[in-house]
Amino acid sequence: MLIDRIKQIARDIHPLVIARRRHLHAHPELSFQEKETSAYIKKQLSEMGIPWQPVADNGVVALIRGGKLSDRVVALRADIDALPIHEQNAVEYRSTCTGVMHACGHDAHTASLLGTAHILQALREEFGGTVKLIFQPGEEKLPGGASLMIREGVLENPRPEGIIGQHCAPALEAGKIAVRPGKFMASMDELQVWVRGKGGHAAQPHQNIDPVVIAAHIIVALQQIVSRQANPTHPSVLSFGRVIADGAINVIPDEVHLEGTLRTMDEAWRAKAHEQMVKMASGIAESMGGSCEFRIVKGYPYLLNNEALTSKIRRYAESYLGEDQVVEADLWMAAEDFAYYTQATSGCFYLLGTGNSARGINSALHSPTFDIDESALEISTGLMAFMALKELGY
To answer: Is 81 annotated in the active site?
Structure first.
């Protein structure tokens, strides 16, 4: 059976996939700086006899063409960049780059897709059609490497009928995956706000226009955008994570700088929220004697899993793993530039369980102690290969 053959190859190459993941983990590179990571991917593909091309600087696209006649095409995607986080794990493969870490599992995604490539290359004479492998830079930073890859034609020549991606999920035990059809992940916008007043001595507030107080009112009031203006059936999040006043205990500054994010799953509401935030913040600042500059950097769209493709992906996963190992994913208000692919073609993005609570491997994504249960890499490589072959009609 096809499943048994894929599982056997996945078992055989599991140590190699682990070694690749550990190499990548030890040598992380920030978004759009993945020169050595890209070179490593190209070397691994070349050693497997898989032709590749560079796309969007550090991106790589490779093709595995089946030996049987078919014009069907499916794409598989992995992201390759790391985060500006200093690793705290005491492991032999910990990051060798101070202040840079694979804290989101992109090392696992990349190593997994290389393992999937190994399986597909081994079986290439038995299937028809083409598998397009996309190794994408810059997922963690706007404008998102996916948008650049698409702009440079990664979804053309040949054009895939659909694209499949996966993401590490430390809250999900290794051995399981989670799938959700339809809206899955949120859009993401970066908010930059400058609240300006008139600084001076903190003991003489009547002579000043205090931008700290104005900013505080703005932060609290803007929460009404979500709690009182958003349709409760449309998930929305508005958060400010950075507030810089730069005064002192006895100094009221001239300006306060705020940075935050808006996340939604409805594009019409997203546009309206942009207008309302600017209007509300400006009105509050002016009513208190100050001024407000509100800049919105529009980021990734919401991620929409194609219903038909996702239904098939779930069936494939249940066949490969067993029904009890496939669960329904919750809505996730994190953002992912895989969303750009889902706007351009049919897509399915699912969660790969990488946690192991018994071994204490459950630190959150983007944390300095994030790690994975590497047994998940045997599942991820084989499962994605199986999904690709089923999509090609094997």
So the answer is: yes
Q: pLDDT tens digits, residue range 280-322?
A: 999 999 999 999 999 999 999 999 999 999 999 999 999 999 9
Does 336 share its domain with 266? Answer: no
Report pLDDT for 239: 97
Q: Are residues 194 and 182 in the same domain?
A: no
> Active-site residue among 29, 34, 81, 173?
81
- This prediction's pTM: 0.94
Closest to 121 in 3D by CA, of 55, 69, 47, 70: 47
DSSP 180-210: --EEEE---EEEEEEEE-B-EETT-GGGSB-
Selecting among 79, 139, 255, 373, the annotated active-site residue is 139
For residue 227, is pLDDT > 90?
yes
The domain boundary residue, chosen from 298, 313, 333: 298
Q: How far is CA 153 from CA 12, 77, 129, 149, 301, in A?
A: 35, 14, 19, 6, 19
Q: Which residues contact 193 (CB under 8 A, 6 or more apart)?
A: 215, 218, 257, 258, 259, 260, 281, 292, 293, 294, 295
Q: Is 107 a catalytic residue?
A: no
pLDDT of 33 over the 90 cut: yes
- pLDDT exceeds cutoff 90 at 1: no
| Contact criterion met (CB below 8 Å) for 84 and 62 | no
